[in-house]
Amino acid sequence: MSALNVELVAADRKVWSGEASMVRARSIDGEIGIMPGHTPILGVLVEGDVVIKTESGERVATVDGGFLSVDHDTVTIVAETVTESSR
What confidence tier does 66 reach under pLDDT thresholds 50, 70, 90? Predict the structure, then answer.
């Protein structure tokens, strides 16, 4: 199974990077789910949770907005502030 290469970045630091099977986030157009093979997209994020499903479980981070870019199974999420929480 192919995987996504994900990078979650706040204005002041790289929060997390690694492989994931899915990413879920809230955009201005509603919730979006990204899986391997997704078409390229650039979305504007609203305040809410970003969920990254990895082999070892889910990583959850709350963002204050920002954007999400998908291209060739690479997902980049950039926000001004990112707060990680545990599930």
Answer: very high
Cα R_g (the chain), whole angstroms: 12
Reply yes or no on whether the pLDDT at 2 is more than 90.
no
Domain ranges of the chain: 4-85
Residues in contact with 36: Cβ distance below 8 Å, sequence separation at least 6, in sequence order:
1, 2, 3, 4, 21, 73
Q: Tokens for 49? A: 């949770």
Reported in sequence order, the residue ranges of the chain that DSSP labels E, i.e. its strands, are 4-10, 13-20, 22-27, 30-34, 41-45, 48-54, 57-63, 66-71, 74-79, 82-85
4-85 CATH:
2.60.15.10
Model confidence, pTM: 0.93
Q: Residue type for 37, please? A: G
